[in-house]
């Protein structure tokens, strides 16, 4: 028999071994035991990997279906509202907000060879207001170590909660539960594109690219649908470091006869404008600023005499209209940089060694 402790702020559904009255059917259900195991494959929620080894509430596997503990941290990350009372039992409802996944880890490790036994929950369970018949479920809601565990079947993940789930033998099982986290993945994709030269950029169903840049032929900035259709030339520029910001593309034009200048053009091919004639490379456009590396040999006048310094000068930024330029880092040893999460990560060559630094 069980007593329920409802923790409002923590909202963790926990059951202790003290007395709690349930109908006769619950006694029968609680006597049924189901063998379970720990998943041996990676599991991620909104891109964050779950530490199964040190988690006091580890995921379970029953009949090859992954089960999640209905703790506050997991339900918040999955975008679920959990309510409980002694009369109606447990209710899970989909909402549109997901919190970042928090993991409270323990120094004690879970023994993967342990024999695990769970039982069906001895109380009613509703999903989006509909009562499920747990006794008829092939993958019932379970109780393990006094914690409610919910099955991640297609019926619930896709149809009831509208999550995106994927599986493969290498990456394991992944759940994307909220669009906000999907946007974070999009930002990571854009950052990786910029870090690798910005040869193409994506937004919605369009790809913007300079397809012949490395082929030695005539260059152009073009756009096309994801399937290659509706191809259109936007300009004849040899575009590098392509960034998509709203309805504009920001990029560097690389020509042998002049410095690498920063241009912008609308995504429909109109409004091509010179933003800055600075000699830059590795352009990143983020939060209203353009970040770039600058060469020493062809700096605009008024920035100081650095002609004697060869190669790059350091990391600069300016507003997206070309104003308010400032130098963030003066270091000719910088080879490249990467921006994410409010930090600038940059690589240098010093004393014959590659070194990695970070700054705000």
Automatic annotation (TrEMBL):
Q: Where is the signal peptide?
A: 1-21
The UniProt record lists the Prolow-density lipoprotein receptor-related protein 1-like beta-propeller domain at: 193-359
Q: Provide the alphabetized UniProt keywords.
A: Signal
Q: Name one Pfam family in it.
A: DUF5050
Q: Does the keyword Signal apply?
A: yes
Residue ranges annotated as transmembrane are: none
InterPro entries of this UniProt entry? LRP1-like_beta_prop, SrfA-induced_signal
| Protein name as it appears in the record | Prolow-density lipoprotein receptor-related protein 1-like beta-propeller domain-containing protein
Q: Which organism is it from?
A: Paenibacillus allorhizosphaerae
């Amino acid at each position: 028999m069980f007593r329920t402790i409802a923790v409002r702020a923590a909202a963790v559904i926990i059951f202790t071994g003290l007395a709690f009255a349930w109908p006769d059917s619950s006694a029968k259900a609680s006597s049924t035991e189901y063998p379970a195991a720990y998943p041996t494959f990676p599991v991620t929620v909104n891109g964050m990997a779950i530490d199964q080894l040190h988690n006091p509430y580890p995921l379970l596997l029953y009949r090859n279906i992954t089960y999640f503990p209905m703790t506050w941290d997991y339900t918040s990350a999955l975008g679920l509202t959990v309510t409980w009372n002694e009369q109606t039992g447990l209710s899970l409802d989909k909402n549109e907000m997901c919190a970042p996944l928090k993991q409270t880890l323990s120094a004690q490790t879970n023994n993967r060879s342990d024999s695990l036994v769970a039982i069906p929950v001895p109380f009613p369970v509703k999903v989006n207001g509909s009562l499920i018949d747990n006794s008829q479920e092939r993958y019932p809601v379970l109780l393990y170590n006094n914690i409610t565990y919910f099955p991640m079947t297609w019926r619930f993940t896709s149809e009831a909660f509208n999550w995106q789930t994927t599986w493969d033998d290498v990456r394991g099982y992944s759940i994307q539960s909220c669009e906000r986290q999907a946007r974070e993945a999009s930002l990571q994709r854009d950052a990786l594109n910029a870090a690798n030269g910005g040869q193409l950029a994506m937004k919605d169903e369009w790809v913007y690219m300079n397809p012949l840049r490395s082929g030695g032929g005539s260059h152009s900035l073009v756009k096309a649908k994801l399937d290659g259709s509706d191809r259109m030339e936007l300009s004849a520029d040899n575009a590098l470091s392509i960034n998509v910001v709203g309805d504009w593309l920001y990029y560097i034009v690389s020509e042998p006869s002049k410095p690498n200048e920063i241009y912008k053009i609308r995504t429909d091919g109109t409004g091509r404008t010179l933003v800055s004639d600075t000699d830059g490379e590795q352009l990143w456009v983020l939060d209203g600023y353009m970040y770039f590396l600058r060469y020493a040999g062809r700096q605009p006048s008024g920035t100081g005499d650095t002609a004697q310094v060869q190669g790059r000068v350091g990391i600069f930024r300016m507003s997206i209209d070309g104003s308010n330029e400032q130098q963030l880092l003066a270091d000719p040893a910088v080879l490249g940089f990467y921006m994410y999460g409010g930090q600038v990560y940059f690589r240098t060559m010093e004393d014959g060694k590659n070194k990695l630094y970070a700054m705000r």
